Long-chain acyl-CoA synthetase
Amino acid sequence: MISTDEQRPWLASYAPDVAADVVVPEESLTAALERGAAEYPDRVALDFMGRTTTYAELWDEVRRAASALIGLGVVPGDRVAVALPNCAAHVVAFYATLRIGAVVVEHNPLYTDSELAHQLADSGAVVAVCWEQTAVAVARVQGRTSVRTVVAVDLSRDLPRVKRWALALPVPAARALRTSMRAVVPDGVLRWDRLVRGASVLAAEHPSPVGDDLALLQYTGGTTGTPKGAMLLHRHLVANAVQGAEWTGAARAAAAGEPPAVVFGVLPFFHAFGLTLCLSYTIRIGATLVLFPKFDVGTVLAAQKRRPGTFLPAVPPMLDRLATAARASGADLTSFRYAICGAMPLSAATAQAWESVTGGLAIEGYGMTETSPVALGNPVSSARRPGLLGVPFPSTWARVAVQDDPSRAVAPGERGELQVSGPQVFEGYWQQPEESAQCFVEADGRTWLRTGDVVVMDEDGFVTVVDRIKEMIITGGFKVFPSQVEDLLRQMPGVEDVAVVGIPGGDLGEKVVAAVVLEPGVDGFDLETVRAWCAQHLARYALPRQLVVVKDLPRSQIGKVMRRVVRDQILAAS
């Protein structure tokens, strides 16, 4: 049994055998993959649309890719941009970059030119490994960045041979799939498969990174809404994988001789949630990762027949859609022991729907890019509480502080800003010392990360989110920064002023709404015109889904638009 601690009341709610603290090994993130290749070389590590890669094959591919990157002039500390959908090449590029001591910079492959240009220039990436369609965009903005070499990945190369041949068939379905996967890349862009195939295997004695080396730059809005590169060291990512393994009981299951877990990788790896639970946690526990380039209910159910899953990291709408489809089709999802949800609240109805069709558990957690990302979780037991964020992870401390005085904690049950301390908390923001300093506070002998979220913690240590200090919009699990959308819309002809807010949007969590003040004499303004304007510079998920034309916008005494008032007015009107 776990003994309670008056400073950590949440320990009493931990699932049986979950330790209060974990030991984080002094090693790089790649060490787990190397061990897996040695201990269970023939175990399937990856399954991409039916094509399998064993742990031994994956480690061999990673070492060849590492040699290829060295051949491109990449040295320890260099940043390598990775802009790929979920696929085997993404896993290889990620671990190959880390193996040689370089730094991965993850990007959404659907970013617009301006979004790519900003992040590539800010990170100083020297090589970009991209999906063919993204490589075209990167090549267009390359001159505004430090990127020396663009390498294109042919996604179809990761398919089973039969499916790859089928792409060449002269039928509409094959042509549509081929178009969605392929693109004609510009001259001078290299081919990933040729580079890796022609490279030698990296020597075993090649120096490896250590725990204190920078591993990842993950762009996030942080607490201010301006995208910045969160600096995650190897030890931060290793710590969160170790914490996850302890929380889910994966290590104990392996010791008991249970079959390896099968993790369904439906979350994008360029997102911190998907990256940790699919790319690092999965490899650490020696599981099989089933890769999906995008979430599609039919594709997931087909994969379930081929290789039944046991663990699904997801956002709540995914659970809803899969549960509904399973009930309608009779698909068997009972192999799933648990699903872990984040990025948006997990309702009791969604949890019940998932648990009724699987017999497993739906577990809500909380995290942010700055915590690698998981900091809180509901117990993987009957003690879980759907709708609550959960309790602090092993070796993680949390407290609630006065919003205007972050050094002073509030009493249990009172609202305040959530603060977190633990081995998974990031190092700071890339080349942003002032921003970094603002998000930490020293108190009670610890360094605390200010999350920017207003919460209530009860006497048992369970946390409930109340509001967000930062006015970021989370739609479909993706973060949208209102200021970016507003800055773009202010440049649109006919727009005098604008406020962008998020309101409840069903399965999306929130939907992006633009409240617009028109210039005098302008009429005929519609949503599709606004979306078309924004689509030139914003990802699809960031486009406004509702347009409200207003006479003016509420402002504070210093003239700042009060987005929360705008949001309340829109909700009241609807």
